Amino acid sequence: MDSNAWDEIFRLLAAAGAGIAIGLNREMQGKPLGMRTLALVALGSAIAALTAVDYRGLDHNPDALSRVVQGVLQGVLTGIGFIGAGVVLRNKDAGTVEGLTTAASVWVTAAIGIACALAAWHLVIIGVVLTLVVLAGLGWVEDKLFPSRDAVNKPQNIDKA
Fold first, then answer.
1. Residues 50, 117: contact at Cβ < 8 Å?
2. pLDDT for 40-90, tens place per residue?
3. Which of 41, 95, 99, 121 is the most buried (most CB within 10 A)?
4. Is the pLDDT reported for residue 5 higher than 50?
5. Cα–Cα distance between 7 and 117 in angstroms, integer?
6. Residue 143 C-alpha from the chain's centroid
7. What is the three-class DSSP state of 119?
8. For residue 62, what are the domain limits?
9. What pTM was computed for the model?
């Protein structure tokens, strides 16, 4: 294997690792999405982006390569939106919506996977750190600022005897 292949392997491993880190936070919060799902989202995004960037048939035409990359990235991020939408639940009776943060974590994990594929390491590091700060830290802030909202949104255990 040449050095380019090892570099691409590292990029894919980094994408999966970033997805695992974000998924671990979701699992620790008891959310319906975890390490395996987000690792696959990031890995799939990275594979799609690497495939577009690595397509050798467009080496001599930068404009065509740019259009291919743009199309792949747009398709990945649009498609990931559909996966995220699948975890959003609306309860008309209670007036609540759940799963928006989980859906957003799917989307940001896909973007981090793309950054891994493009070897934008500063964006990967900053993206993972900020994502984890938002997921872990801002939940605590929301609980302190809006304690009544948290009580409304938590599911109640109703005994059906």
1. yes
2. 888 888 888 887 776 655 566 777 767 777 887 788 778 877 777 777 887
3. 41
4. yes
5. 10
6. 23
7. coil
8. 3-153
9. 0.66
